[in-house]
Design goal:
Order of helices and strands of chain A: HEHEEHHEHEHHHHHEHHHEHHH
Number of helices of chain A: 16
Number of strands of chain A: 7
Oligomer: homotetramer
Strand order of the largest sheet of chain A: 2-3-4-6-5
Structural class of chain A: alpha+beta
Helix content of chain A: 40-55%
Strand content of chain A: 5-15%
Radius of gyration of chain A: 25 Å
Chain lengths: 341, 341, 341, 341
């Protein structure tokens, strides 16, 4: 992430203005307020403003008159209770506002979370900077390895083969994967080079189309139309405001290992922001969401049988292959129970 | 539920109009379309309209051109996959519209679900019928038995005692409960009689306040003001429209045993409606939501230890008394593991 | 509004905690932060927290790096531009959290605004105070006078008479209104007395039903059930959090002269809060919303004809009686044009 | 719009299935149900399903038991009343589901409307067809002419010049526009050719990156990453479901002359769909929204003065140049009043 000196100066000038307030304040978040936290090659997240803290959740849940905190220990107990029983409305009582710079293809996933407010930099009215996302070479090599994994299988499921066909699909994929192996380092470098060249070419056309307006010789095409030649890797930016409940929902989905690497990079940074902002909530979120496991009716029956020392036959319980694999990943001890069957 | 003859006639007249459509149609739901399904003493649920069926979810998930169904078996597999992985947006593609008659105190809980459309009968502009909810005597006796249970404990938690204090609270409550026992049948009858008399008195005042407008001698007070003397047990009615995803969320919370008996009565009827409407979704909802169990990080650790045959000490894992009780209720075999400790 | 000394002490204790912040701060709002602003006989509004100020809207609209303000004059111009062209998203970037005490019948209107977060004091788990709303005698007299006005006519429209019938309806209503005149002061006093007695009786039953739990002899009925005998005038309270755009929408509807007096009393207080908080937005809101007039296609044609000095025949333009009356109320000069016809 | 024969066959097969229903049915909409309505060069809109009709709005507003229609004339009067007074909830009682194919840059504007349900074709899991949007030559020439108009001025306002500076900006722009004139036809053709070549090149790289998976020699990069090289003009498709109230809001903004040409093309098609579906609503929407004019406090004062025959000085009333121009565009007769001043 490069940020021009004038923008950094604007940020620091804003940070320098400190005023007294009667509102709840979180020192750990004030520390980083306004400062860009780098993500990917040119992106960032900046916390612009926030409302509320751990105590504000307790205060709302109790509809209380004062600050609502009596003891940290009882606040913690109540927050865990609310998280566990999905009493979500008190978590809506905290709010955060972010300035985010992100590639357009990430923005398109991000915007699917509708319960938030957004102001995006307008490419209808403003010229976009020549900034686009390029993957790390290492990532490219990794992605290639994983591609015969979940995403391919999910696609196959969406294409709806007969269930029997699906059972064998991953195997043949695995075979091919074995044959091809990891992307060679020099091939990965070649791929990145081609992606870069293509983006540069697109941006050059963009500037040519805009042209006359900016002193450059060109066609003077309207910005809203010229931008259509830019690649999905182009960086955009927006102000994004969301309440804590919906932010946690966003993080649960986007910090997940099934999320695309690039949006996950933003989610990881936001997890840190949440930890600074509302540490008690973060702890409860980890225990009851991030590290929690949901057992379906069939999975629960499998666990009960295993606890009774009986053998477990996933198929007869209606547990598909993938569901069983996921269950064993969460509770590795079950693998033995299945073998007993 | 009494329904005047003219209203039943209106309903049947509407039902008699059958037209051909190219849209997906669900015969099992058409059967009951428009007909009031009774709930509580005067309430009902009527399915007024619906959009989509099981296949419509598959169609949307695949963004397909035709009806989207190839085989029921693959539709079922995809629906279960979507439910399991919380890909919620395809479930939003089905919609249902209901006419509901319900007591105001139930309506106040119901309306908390914001992602729905509502048109309520207006007591600002219209006169309310003399209809109010009275609990069954049996329910009253039951409720009394349960009242030292969850609700009292939850209230105590909201009042935030020190965690140690909480551990002993339920016990003393249990003591009292033991001493008092079940509400005598004649006392329950007395309670219902008093509630009835109070509601009747309120309605009589209401009509007196309105008065002149309706031929009755009275004060001619505006309806919007006169209604303020009516009890929360008064019946209101509304048109309520919601998508399937949000309806399932509603049902998960309101068909739960922690929900108040009266709203749960509506939820039970709606579960039947969903089963008629989208049977594959209903089955997946049961398996992955209604009968599912979520294990927190600590609960998961407890299960893993028990599976390994090790003793489990809930406290050292950070599992509070209530959380442990809930876990044992879901996986009774764990009780033994704890005893081993 | 009475507030117990301990609650006022809690509020003042919370107010005494002042901390420095880098966030935008609004001194005029900090002044009243936490303090109850009285509404009706027992209600209040308390500003618990807020996020953003006038400059924050500009900052978001420009997706800028610093505080976003260069000159007040240009901020004002941009805010007015955004308001005029209904670029609503920047106004969503400000947020406010309120603690409100209000009668249940008002709460039921209020909650219809779905784009907000709410935590209500729970009458399932807590006992409600003996507090209920009683209208002023003066209000009662006023309300009676107005009741043959809008609300009655609107009801008739909903009942859908033939359009010709509607044209004469208001007249006969007016006749009756003329005949009956204003509610006598002593009759109004009698009405209030009856309303008070009824509410007192309901509360006494409520306390009797709860009984045993609170030292009082009684039935020990569950709170969630006992509350159903309370009147709609009972006070409840909640934390309510909303963004500025949606708050302005709420105010446009609820500060309107068609809104019920009681919710309008809250809206008036909230208008003052907005004026303190974001004075430039408030000014634009007044000019472009509160005091604005919308001309339908037909109304516009009427105005154009009048501007050309031509006679205006509302009926031939498709302007109904009520629509024409509303238009003349907004542009009294049109009355003359119609007479010319 | 080209649509492969197999897809058209799927559509017609689905259309052939006609079943009887008790639900309200709209013959004029059934006629086009499922059939792609072409938009731009490769896009389309298909009505996949719908719920409700004009009568359903009346039915919900009256919370009625039957079909709710007594006479078309009274339904029309009520619908116009609801539209005029912004009683929006009954319009939420109708719902429509569309399958839309559209360029990504249009999709990005479209998705800003959050109160809708979306299922987009996934470029993470599926390969995108080689289809991208190219503007008409005529459009390009037109756009160039307009570009010194609103969009440029709006941009300047967002950049926040001093108000005086803004007053002269449009003039110099006009000068330049005068100098340059319209884009020559052969230059426009050149621009389109360059845009086409760039998109083709991007797609060729995309296919090369995917490669191995599809029999083509290539790099076998994951789809989610390969797609980032595609231009914003690439076509995507989605299922989109929205209620009538929110659809009208969408149309008011997107069928507006300030909307970008490409999204407006979709809005125009949707206006036709609405006209077929709910003709009474459409008529009211035209009269009270599309052709309505809003007068601010200052504009209202200007109109009143003009009606009284007094001269009008926009500046002294606080009407900026642009606001005055917009007012005169809506009420041309005002131009004379200003000259009198």
């Amino acid at each position: 992430m490069r940020l021009e000196a004038d923008k950094l100066a604007e940020i620091e000038a804003a940070r320098a203005e400190v005023t007294p307030t009667r509102r709840p304040t979180v020192a750990a978040l004030e520390e980083i307020l306004g400062r860009p936290l780098p993500v990917l090659d040119h992106g960032f997240v900046r916390v612009v403003d926030y409302m509320g803290d751990d105590a504000a959740i307790v205060q709302a849940a109790r509809v209380s008159y004062g600050k609502g905190t009596k003891q940290v220990s009882s606040d913690r107990a109540l927050i865990r209770y609310l998280m566990r029983h999905r009493h979500t409305s008190p978590f809506e009582m905290c709010e955060i506002k972010l300035h985010v710079k992100l590639p357009i293809f990430v923005a398109r996933q991000w915007i699917r979370h509708r319960t938030a407010s957004v102001n995006e930099y307008s490419a209808r009215y403003s010229v976009l900077d020549r900034e686009f996302y390029l993957p790390d070479r290492e990532l490219l090599q990794l992605v290639r390895l994983e591609r015969s994994g979940d995403s391919v299988r999910q696609e196959r499921l969406f294409d709806a083969p007969a269930p029997e066909a699906r059972a064998t699909a991953p195997q043949s994929t695995n075979n091919r994967q074995g044959r091809e192996g990891k992307l060679e380092a020099d091939v990965a470098a070649d791929v990145v080079r081609r992606m870069k060249r293509a983006a540069e070419t697109d941006f050059t056309l963009y500037e040519k189309l805009l042209g006359a307006d900016d002193g450059v010789e060109g066609f003077g095409i309207a910005r809203e139309l010229a931008r259509t030649v830019l690649p999905l890797s182009t960086y955009t930016q927006w102000y994004w405001k969301i309440d804590l409940h919906n932010l946690l929902h966003f993080l649960r989905l986007r910090a997940d290992r099934h999320a695309q690497h690039e949006i996950r990079a933003y989610a990881e940074v936001l997890l840190d922001v949440v930890r600074r902002w509302v540490p008690l909530v973060y702890e409860a979120f980890e225990d009851y969401r991030l590290q929690a496991v949901e057992l379906s009716a069939a999975a629960r029956e499998a666990v009960r049988r295993a606890l009774r020392g009986e053998p477990v036959d996933p198929e007869s319980l209606g547990l598909g292959r993938r569901e069983w694999d996921e269950l064993v990943a969460a509770l590795p001890e079950l693998a033995g129970a299945a073998r007993k069957g």
